[in-house]
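User: I'm curious whether this sequence folds into something compact or stays loose and floppy. Could you predict its structure so I can see for myself?
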Amino acid sequence: MVSAKAKTAGATGFLSLGLALALTPAGVLFARQATAPVAAPAAHAAASAETLAKGKTLFDSAVCSSCHTLAAAGASGDIGPSLDQNPNLTHDLIVARVKNGQGAMPPYNGQLSDADVEAVTAYVLSATAKQAQRVRRVR
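Assistant: Here's the prediction. I'll summarize afterward.
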């Protein structure tokens, strides 16, 4: 069941996304970015199996998969940026986006504790690092 607060945040996010798309030049929207494999970030190296499991549970329960693609989570959303092989992902960027939101993404500050945000961040970084390792082995 989705709360009224989540519905309002989602609607606001979609309006923000629509405005951003309307104001963005078409060349920027359709330009392809290089998808170089993501280097394994050191920030998740110390994350325990328990923290990573908690991060996955939070990723699933916060409905991140409805907007983001992350193969490790079975997520195939197409509203937000794909987290798979995303060269822009850093610990600080993920923490900032989860806490403060941006564009269509609602802020989760106040809904998730700092420990929860760190767990989601560690999970995403770990999942993308494992994927980058698989890509390197295939090449």
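Summary: The chain has one domain: 4-138. Strands lie at 69-70, 75-76.
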